[in-house]
Specification:
Helix content is 56%, strand content 0%. With 242 residues, the protein is an all-alpha fold.
C-alpha cells in the first residue's frame, strides 16, 4: 500500500484535493476557515510523506548507480585488451587447453598454487583446479590478470578458442593433399565422397564403403601406415609433422 493512501483518503473525507485547495475569502465563516486549516494540515503531512518516499527512492537509485558504473568500467577495461586477450586465447586453445571450464576461467589464481608442471597436479580435484589456474595465469600476460575474473574475459576466451581451431582446420584442408601426394580437391571440397577413394580408406583404416567404422588410432598416425597394437609408434608418422 502506498504510504500516502491514508492521507489521500482523509482528503476524500474532507472533500479536498491534495493538489487543489480553495482558500476562503475575507468573508468566510469561522467554520470554513477551520475546515480549510484542517485540509492544509493534512496536505502538509501528505507532502512530507511524499517527500520522504522520494528521498528513499533516490537513495536506492544512488546505491545502484556505483554498481552499474563499476560493471561498465570493468567491461570497458577488458574491451581495451580485447585484441591481446584474443591472441593469447587462440594460442591457449591450440597449445594448452582446447576445452577449458568456463567456471574456472573466472576464478582467481591461488596465492600458492600447485605448479602446473608438477607431478602432484592430479592427486586431488582441488590440486588439479589449482594447477589449471596456475597454468592459465602463466599463459596470459600479467597485464591481463586484473581483468581475468570478469565474465567478459571468459566469454571472449571461449569464443576465440573454437574460432582458432576452425581456422587451423581450414588451413589443414589446403595442405593435406600436398602432405600425402593426393589431389587437393579431395580435402578442400567438404562434399567430396572421400570414403569411395581407396587411398583415403587406407589412411583411415576403413575397409568398407557401406558400413564405415573409424578407428581411434588410424594407420595414418603410424610410420609407413603400419598399425602397432602396442601403440609404441603411434604419432610416429613424420609426414604429419613436416
Amino acid at each position: 500500500m502506498h504510504p500516502n493512501s491514508d492521507m489521500e483518503s482523509d482528503f476524500n473525507v474532507l472533500g479536498g484535493d491534495p493538489e487543489h485547495i480553495s482558500i476562503p475569502g475575507p468573508s468566510a465563516s469561522k467554520g470554513e476557515l477551520l475546515e480549510t486549516l484542517q485540509v492544509l494540515q493534512v496536505q502538509m503531512q501528505w507532502l512530507q510523506a511524499e517527500n520522504k518516499s522520494i528521498k528513499e527512492e533516490n537513495k536506492t537509485l544512488h546505491a545502484d548507480k556505483p554498481k552499474q558504473k563499476r560493471c561498465a568500467d570493468t567491461q570497458h577495461e577488458v574491451s581495451i585488451h580485447e585484441d591481446t586477450i584474443t591472441i593469447y586465447a587462440r594460442k591457449y586453445g591450440m597449445m594448452v587447453e582446447m576445452f577449458p571450464s568456463s567456471e574456472l576461467l573466472n576464478k582467481k589464481c591461488p596465492v600458492s598454487p600447485t605448479a602446473f608442471d608438477s607431478s602432484k597436479q592430479y592427486v586431488t580435484a582441488a590440486m588439479e583446479e589449482s594447477a589449471f589456474l596456475d597454468e592459465l595465469y602463466h599463459h596470459f600476460p600479467e597485464s591481463l590478470h586484473k581483468v581475468m575474473e570478469s565474465s567478459y574475459f571468459s566469454d571472449l576466451v571461449l569464443k576465440s578458442i573454437p574460432n582458432a581451431c576452425a581456422n587451423e582446420i581450414k588451413k589443414l584442408h589446403g595442405v593435406t593433399g600436398d602432405i600425402f601426394g593426393l589431389p587437393t580437391k579431395y580435402f578442400t571440397n567438404l562434399q567430396y565422397d572421400r570414403v569411395s577413394l581407396p587411398e583415403i580408406r587406407q589412411l583411415l583404416g576403413v575397409t568398407s564403403t557401406s558400413n564405415v567404422v573409424y578407428k581411434i588410432f588410424p594407420p595414418v598416425l603410424f610410420p609407413k601406415l603400419i598399425e602397432d597394437k602396442s601403440l609404441k609408434t603411434v604419432f610416429g608418422n613424420w609426414e604429419l609433422l613436416v
